[in-house]
Amino acid sequence: MPDFNQYPDARGHFGVHGGRFVSETLMAALEELETLYTKVKADPAFWEEYHNDLVNYVGRPTPLYHAKRLSDEIGGAQIYFKREDLNHTGAHKVNNTIGQALLAKMCGKKRIIAETGAGQHGVATATIAARLGLECIVYMGADDVERQKMNVYRMRLLGATVVPVTSGSRTLKDAMNEAMRDWVTNVDSTYYIIGTVAGPHPYPLLVRDFQAIIGKEARIQHLEKTGKLPDALVACVGGGSNAIGLFFDFLNDPEVKMYGVEATGDGIESGRHSAPLAAGRIGVLHGNRTYLMADDDGQIQETHSISAGLDYPGVGPEHSFLKDMNRVEYVGCTDKESLEGFHESTRKEGIIPALESAHAVAYALKLAKTMTPDQTIIVNMSGRGDKDLHSVMKAEGIEL
Length: 400
Fold this sequence. Notes:
There is one protein chain. This protein is α/β, with parallel strands linked by helices. Helix content is 44%, strand content 18%. The radius of gyration is 19 Å and the shape is globular.
């Protein structure tokens, strides 16, 4: 097994994946960002400021919670939730936004743009922009604007301009397209805070590094509680930032199994899903080479998931590499199964998960049944579910 800490290479590649496939206009900005990040990554003062914000503004460390009632009912492995839903703004996204906002400040940029699907990255970006007094523009697919109304209102309350994107599938892919166009046009004044471990190099690297705090904390907390490493890690995968955040610190521990859960929507066979690792092909999307969903002519296919945050036709290039290396097993969870996970967590543990996280919960419940009571699973509870109540009610035909 290779040392996974050595990736990406100097050109931003994870095996055949990753890299930098962008117009000439953006090359100088990306090279400037890479140079800056390479410098600050070795600067203890930068990380001291970052961790100070995580502690005093975000509220870290988040707890590692033993879901005992769920575990007892299943009778298999003990399930632990890493409670990223307790972060300020309600999800793991703020870990990355805090770090990139520090980079934007060092670049002297006064205008921030972002894209968002479920709205959590948009809310986190709008929050940090308000705190720093920066202009903030958030691109969001028109369908996601409709199903995430409360997060749209939160962003506007924070002073951000939310731009609905009506092209294509009107979801995260199209929001990212528009954000890239804005960046090309305004690159001299604008910093683009990408919300996941995708995009051109160095974004997959720096987003991973900012999210790695999740796994670092989880390792320490699990050792304190059990005296050993966990037997398995489970996290949902859209772009894949919360999953990389949990996995990265354990990649060189072969005894720890890892499961990334893609959204299989109505089922892989239906064609209505968001599972490029299970049913995609290698291509280029949003500036990096990775597995993606495309037809025989290379055109990006529309995706479907009940979860706006997982409704994306690509995936971060490091996940594609980990799939090729057989280090992480990528599995699927349908809309129906995710709703079962959503209700199980809510009724048995009093924790309402985001629909993204509910995919991971649902798979962990199945996995735990195949394991013994002395084994453990950490599930990344990546976000809280109040933003998704409208989607759950609509899916289940509930009217109040």
